[in-house]
């Protein structure tokens, strides 16, 4: 990290506007909107902390991050380059060497090979829910914070699944395709109402539980399976095993994260457990379903239909890529009856993307400018109240370090020569995060603190903001 240079004042962000678009509870973290100010005790204006000139912060946004997020970052004066697609690994490596911040969605793979090259990288913003595309452990060990938006698109996914349940039950995809080809095929055979049918939800988290409420409102019975014990909403009921869920459900829908334990979670043995003529929906991650097994189950009539939004391999950009070159079974899959295929659009609504842009954009600004890690998925979550404009000789020291005995003593020996106004420290696995606000420090003191911390053997990353 470059040595601290000078202080730059930037306009106060428009928090009131942001609160109006974000649906995430984390938005409550922000200062209250201006309309509240009369009712609250007067507080000194927060000081914007910067490690260097704002325009020196270089940000690369990939995969068409929403304008709401881009506006927040450009509004800070950072240099923002925004691309519509993800990048092939060689180009990504070339670009990531230079940037302090990268913003991605689900396609960009930030694996160890890529992150090793990211010598200036401070923070990753996943403008989505899933963070399986990032090597979180490697990032943490190198002091790179990762943020996501944990539930701003949950409702959009749940609504898509509701649409798919009816679409499958009524064979709407096939009827529509036939009509597009000029064929009139009026049938009721094996077309059903969803009222009174059983929906089995695998993974009862943000999306699964939201879906549960919507499905019950439409007259479905809901059961769910999860690795943790959770209270069911409405009259939904948790079942103890995946097999029990598969045995009882007319529709099975998957909402688990991509993990080693969820890889091919639905394969030949699980299709055998499903009811004859039932349906499968996967809007979680492509690795969760064994697609060749699904092709067999569909051809044999064991399942009456399926809807897939996610695939083991997905293209980096829009275009004619969904072929056997991408996934060897691509054409077999496309030939199946009553199969809805969508290009990973579960969270792709205006509402969700706008809210995600705001939530992740704000988290990045808080981290870059103030070192606050609230909401980070890989570093301990630490917060200190803001320094104010009335505290001009203060600096915020951030020391990301290995979580080993004796570190705090050494850090406090360095900080002990100064007045530490407030301090917080927390750890997560092998990595710990310390923030301290020190007063009455000038540029020379800041330089000395920074260099002394850099010299400690436990150091992962040092930032001094002032
Ligand atoms: N298609 C899309 O566009 C889209 C959009 C958002 C999220 N997603 C995917 O959906 C997944 C779920 O999202 P969410 O917000 O509901 O996540 P969440 O973390 O809120 O819920 C996941 C649930 O799965 C459970 N779980 C984990 N492992 C399990 C296992 N082996 N068996 C059963 N249950 C298990 C967890 O305990 C948790 O309750 C995300 O991880 C993401 O991959 C897809
Ligand atoms: O927008 C995306 O690319 C990912 C959407 C979804 O899978 C998520 O993880 O939020």
TrEMBL record:
It catalyses: (R)-2-hydroxyglutarate + NAD(+) = 2-oxoglutarate + NADH + H(+); (2R)-3-phosphoglycerate + NAD(+) = 3-phosphooxypyruvate + NADH + H(+). Belongs to the D-isomer specific 2-hydroxyacid dehydrogenase family. Its EC number is 1.1.1.399, 1.1.1.95. Gene3D superfamilies: 3.30.70.260, NAD(P)-binding Rossmann-like Domain (3.40.50.720). This is 2-oxoglutarate reductase. Keywords: Amino-acid biosynthesis, NAD, Oxidoreductase, Phosphoprotein, Serine biosynthesis. The keyword NAD applies. It comes from the Eukaryota. Pfam families: 2-Hacid_dh (PF00389), 2-Hacid_dh_C (PF02826). Coiled coil: none annotated. GO terms for biological process: L-serine biosynthetic process. GO terms for molecular function: 2-oxoglutarate reductase activity; NAD binding; phosphoglycerate dehydrogenase activity. It comes from Neoarthrinium moseri. Catalyzes the reversible oxidation of 3-phospho-D-glycerate to 3-phosphonooxypyruvate, the first step of the phosphorylated L-serine biosynthesis pathway. Also catalyzes the reversible oxidation of 2-hydroxyglutarate to 2-oxoglutarate. PROSITE patterns: ACT, D_2_HYDROXYACID_DH_1, D_2_HYDROXYACID_DH_2, D_2_HYDROXYACID_DH_3. Residues 396-466 form the ACT domain. It is an enzyme of class 1 (oxidoreductase).
